[in-house]
Amino acid sequence: SFMLDKLSTIQDVEHSYKYYQIMRDTQPVWYDEQTRSWNVFRYQDVYTVVTDHQRFSSQMKASRSLDRVLENESRIKMGKALTRLDPPLHRRYRNLVSPAFTPRALSRLSGRIEAISQELLDQVRAAGKMEFVADFAYPLPTIVIAEMIGVPTSDRPLFRGWADELLNSQIQRAEEPHDGDSNVRRMVDVFAEMSEYFDRMLEERRRHPRNDMMSELLAVELDGERLSTEDTISFCITLLLAGHVTTLNLLSLAIYCFHTHPDAMERLRKQRELMPGAIEEVLRYMSPVRALRRVTAADVTLGDVTIPKNAQVFAWLASANYDERQFAEPERFDITREPNKHLSFGHGVHFCIGAPLARMEAGIALPMILQQLPELRIETDQPLELLEGSGILGFKRLPVTFTASA
Ligand code: HEM
């Protein structure tokens, strides 16, 4: 079953797209007994589910074991994370962080993104090979988001440890882990560590404000009140997690698409201006986020199927992006595709707040990579392994070779 996205290999990904196509044609709104969830496959329906926040709520009760345990035992209530709120509260919280993501605020980061990318490339250029995930795709977005929030770059190993544990824990997707599960216990510890860490950082900012997001969040007021420390911490954690795994995988998936479409790679080397369109096509062609979860707030009819109230719904972005009702020749990787209204960043009030940042990071880093690493290829003597369990498409490792240079 591809329903819970147990994708281990690239062949699985290819099969999943065949499967989505069959579902779009035969059972576009399908109830899965095993996961007790409704699954939506067509572009128009996926669009409705992710956009219509009145009927498809993001506010989920803590049904999963991890959520429940965190809710009871941790000071950090991830239930207040942006992705879990509905309007009107959602808008108020989102407004607090959105200034950090305006084009003007982001343009100040572009020099740093270029400098970090250059530093990373300088470390590998002479070797003629690297493990792209560990040597480039992982550190770049992590350093950028860390600098944005305001945590010292020297604490990167800490971040990496937490992110790895959260990613590898599998429990985000596991059917019903029980409270005593050692994985669940470990996650509670990870959240406690993160929360202590940010607590210390925030305490420091309270005494000595700096020019960073933590200081700004502390100064901000919501309905005349300061944001609580708990809410500020959960904001930082959300950004840290949402911002780096997805972007790291976008970078790896782009390299994979270029490797498998050498003609596109050649064109992009010569015509840098095609890169923004190519990045959108990578997002459409291999959506890093496969599906979004919602809960029905009422009985809802999609096509000729009625989904009852309080049902869990998965909107399959990856399937919507291949819907032939929306995209001509969806199976073709076309860097000049126009229009390209993929749903990989979601849509509506929850539209990815970090999309401009992700686009900017990829838009700066990928041309530098193509320019500075001639004959870039993925080493394919070992089968490529995908990340499992996170619900996010990406590679565990991506060994590449290129022509060495001084
Ligand atoms: C929301 C994907 C990069 C922060 C979302 C959503 C998607 C998404 C699909 C919608 C969730 C929903 O409707 O339930 C991606 C992809 C990225 C990426 C594919 C990279 C290629 C980033 C970055 C950041 C970020 C770089 C922050 C630095 C967020 C936040 C939300 C969000 C805070 C919640 C917004 C809300 O609920 O209002 N992202 N994201 N993302 N993303 Fe991203």
UniProtKB/TrEMBL annotation:
It comes from the Bacteria. InterPro entries: Cyt_P450 (IPR001128), Cyt_P450_B (IPR002397), Cyt_P450_CS (IPR017972), Cyt_P450_sf (IPR036396). GO terms for molecular function: heme binding; iron ion binding; monooxygenase activity; oxidoreductase activity, acting on paired donors, with incorporation or reduction of molecular oxygen. Gene3D superfamilies: Cytochrome P450. It holds the Pfam family p450. Keywords: Heme, Iron, Metal-binding, Monooxygenase, Oxidoreductase. SUPFAM superfamilies: Cytochrome P450. Belongs to the cytochrome P450 family. PANTHER family: CYTOCHROME P450 YJIB-RELATED, P450, PUTATIVE (EUROFUNG)-RELATED. This is Cytochrome P450. It comes from Thermosporothrix hazakensis.
